[in-house]
Each structure stands twice: as C-alpha cells, then as structure tokens.
Design a protein that fits this description.
Length: 309
C-alpha cells in the first residue's frame, strides 16, 4: 500500500445542512493521523484545501440547484489534488466535507488511472445511490450526483466532461437503502448493480463484496473507496444530516474495511458527510477513525488465543 496523504476538504456546498465543513478538523481531533502512525503508516497531512479566489461564472440548468459555482470550484481543486498525489505514488485520503467531494476525487482518480492505462473501480459505501444529475435533482443538492457523474451520464453541464467514464460493471453501490424514483429508472437503464441492504440481509456482507473485489483484482484495477457516514446505522453514527435507518452495524462496517485492506487494492479514499455539529461527544468521528484503522490494517478482534491448562 502506498504511503497516505491526508487532504482536508471542508466542503459544505453540496447540501444545505451546515456543519460538514468541520469534518476534517473533527477527524484530526479524533486521532486519524495517530491511528495511521500506530499502524506503521507515515502520513503526510496537506492541511485543508481552499476554494479558488475566483469561482466559475455559470448559469444553473436547474433553478433548484444550490451553490453550483462553489461546487464547481471545489470539484476542480479536489480533482487536481488527488491526481497529483496519485502521480507521486501516494494514497490520497480525502477528508470531507459532504459527498460532493467525490465529484472531484473520483475524477482525479479516473484521470490518473487512464494515464496509467489501468481500469478504475469505484466502491460506494452509502445509504444513497447518488445517481442524480444537476438536471434531474429536485432537491438541488449536488452531493446526490457523484456516481452519475462518474458514469459519464448526460446532463452535467457546466461540469467538465468526466475523464474516462466508468462502465457499470466497475461500480459497486454497497449498503444502499434510499433511492429516488428518478434514480431507480436511470440505474436500471444503465445497468449499474445496486447491492442494497435487502441483498446484504439475504446473502451476508462478505459474499457480494468479495465478488466485486475479486473482479477488481482480476482486471488489475485501481480501487477508489468512498465511505459516507450514512453507510452506517444512525444508532452508531448519528453525525450525518441524511440519516436512514437500517445501515451497517459496527461489526459489519469493520468487516467491510478489513476485507478491503486484505486485498491491497485500495488506491484512494473518501471519508465524507461527517457533521460534528450533529455528533455526540465525537462518537461518530472516532468510529470513522476506527474504520480507517481497519482499512489500513488493524484487526478489531486480532487477539492472541488464551490456552488454559
């Protein structure tokens, strides 16, 4: 695994619930860098990114769209940063910020993978499919659009064209349990597989995830993992503005992260939608740091067996 670079992305423009911009600070306070160090990873912290001084002058194609110029600015900044870190053979860990962070991070990873002539795969750990376009969204919240952008779906102007769009078989939407009707129709049309919580209840966490990771390995792919707080059940992770009951349990989430680590496939990572304003004494921030530990090699139950005579 390449050495990690921490990238703070205090993005609040993809939705209307204030607080996500404090996410990077909360993850640092919760011991993210110390956790990496304890696992033998010497992490470089680039600090927090900032919006460009001049934002794009654009016309919104949908009157409902919120903070479009800001999101365009963040997308360009994050894309360039992720691309640059991957070019240095480092593992960018983008600390959000809302999930519109992924408009830039996945684009940066895709651009680098295309230059390296390797396929990029996307593992989307989320309650939501995030398959709207700027034209189809009725809420106007752009954090609901990154997966559609990654597929090259039409309707994203004035965003720049996505570099090397991902075919549906390279995307795994995992833990999904909230999909709008317009997203349902679009997902069916483009054949992106949705591994929802019903499927995970029936088949377990491990088998569907292992099938996807085996595909990444067989194709020699790079893997971008995008972990949204609302992938987790709100009972264990309350610090998110888009809670959906029935999410991953503590142990299920750690199993997912441990399995990803064991493959050695992850090349870039998002930690998003942490809203410290909604947290309970840092409970969710600490859990996200714990999950990062599992992604980077820590085993929750890795204890020596006790033998009694």
């Amino acid at each position: 695994m390449n050495p990690p670079t921490l990238i703070g992305a205090p993005v609040d423009s993809g939705q209307r619930q204030p607080g996500c911009l404090m996410g990077p600070a909360a993850l640092r306070v919760a011991g993210l860098r110390e956790t990496l160090a304890a696992l033998g990873h010497s992490a470089r912290d680039r600090g927090d990114l900032a919006l460009p001084a001049t934002l794009p002058d654009c016309t919104a194609p949908n009157p409902a769209l919120d903070q479009l110029p800001e999101t365009l600015g963040w997308t360009a900044t994050i894309r360039a940063t992720v691309e640059a870190e991957l070019a240095k053979d480092r593992l960018p860990i983008v600390m959000g910020g809302d999930h519109s962070v992924a408009l830039g991070s996945v684009a940066g990873a895709a651009a680098h993978a295309a230059r390296a002539e390797r396929p990029l795969f996307l593992l989307w750990l989320d309650a939501h499919s995030d398959f709207h376009t700027p034209r189809s969204t009725s809420s106007g919240n752009l954090h609901g659009t990154p997966v559609a952008y990654a597929t090259g779906r039409a309707g994203f102007e004035p965003f720049p064209p996505f570099p090397a769009p991902l075919p549906p078989e390279r995307i795994c939407l995992f833990g999904i349990r909230s999909v709008d009707p317009a997203e349902h129709a679009a997902l069916a049309e483009c054949a992106v597989a949705v591994t929802d919580m019903r499927m995970l209840d029936e088949h377990g966490i491990a088998a569907p995830l292992r099938a996807f990771l085996d595909l990444v390995q067989a194709k020699g792919g790079m893997l971008h993992v995008s972990l949204d707080v609302d992938f987790l059940d709100p009972g264990i992770a309350p610090a998110v503005g888009t809670t959906v009951p029935g999410g991953a349990t503590f142990r299920e989430a750690h199993l997912v992260c441990e399995m990803i680590h064991e493959t050695g496939l992850m090349t870039s990572l998002d930690l998003v939608e942490l809203n410290p304003f909604l947290d309970e004494r840092g409970r969710t921030a600490r859990l996200m740091v714990d999950l990062l530990g599992s992604l980077m090699g820590r085993k929750v139950f890795d204890r020596p067996t006790r033998i009694f005579a």
